[in-house]
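QA checklist item 7 of 12: single-chain prediction sanity check.
[x] sequence parsed
[x] length recorded as 276
[x] structure emitted
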Amino acid sequence: MSEKCFFRIFLITLLFVLISSPSFAGRPVLMMATTTSTDNTGLMDYLAPHFTRAAGVELKWTAVGTGKALEFGRRCDVDLLLVHAPEAEKKYVADGYGVNRRMIMFNDFIIIGPASDPAGIKGKKVIDALTGIQNRKIAFVSRGDNSGTNKKEILLWKESGFAIPNREPWYIQTGQGMLSTINIAAERKAYTMTDRGTYIKYGDNKGGNPALKIMVEGDAILKNQYSVIVINKSNCPEARYDLAMKFSDWMAGKEAQRLVGEFKLLGKPLFIPNAN
C-alpha cells in the first residue's frame, strides 16, 4: 500500500471516529416543561442561547400549564420544570417526584377588562372585584386548564366566598394558554386574570394600546412566584439530573438573574429575579 493511500485511509478513519463521538454529534440536550407565560413572553427564547454558551447544553422545552408540566415530570418525559404554582410544587416534591425546588423570579397576577368596566371593579381589592363580577354576572374568561394561573384564580374565587362558577353562562373556560385566553376575553369584552408578563406581551402585540386594561392589581395575594424543580432520579432513573442542576444553578446565578431583570417590553420588566 502506498504512503498516500495509507494516509487517505487514516484520514477517513479519523473523520469517522470524530463524527461518531457525542461531542461532534452535538451538545447534550436538556428537556424542560415550562409554563405558557415564560414561552409566550419570549423569555425562554431570550435565555436559552445564554445558557447554552455558559454550560454547553442545548435547552429544549415544551410550554404548557403548570398542572400538565407537573404531569410530564411524573411520567419522566422531561428532566426539569420551570413552573408557578407553589402549593402544588411543594406537594410534588413531598411526594418524591421532584427535588431541589428553587425560587427564581416572580411577577404578579392582575385582572384586566374592557375600559368601560361594566362590573365597576377598577381599583378594588381582588376579592371584592370577583364578588362584583359574579353578582352582576358579567362575562369572565378563565383558562380552565389547571395551569398555575388557573389554580390561583380558583383559589381567589373560593376566597371570595363563592363556589367555582363552572356552569354559569357568563363564566367562559377556554382550555387554552394565556395569550389566547386574553384575546378571547378581548373579543367578548370580558374580564380575565393574567400574569403581568403576558399582559405586557399582549400590549406589545397591540402596539401599546391593548383593548383590555388593568382593573385590579397590587394585592399581596396576587404575587406570582416561579420556581425551578429538578426531576427526581429515584422516580425517573433516566432523567438527566446533572444537566438539570446545571440549569438550576445557572438560573440562580448572577448572569441569569441579571438577564431576567433586564428582559423588558414597552420599557417594562416582565419578571423580577429573586433567586437570592
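[x] summary fact logged: The longest strand covers residues 98-114.
[ ] second reviewer sign-off
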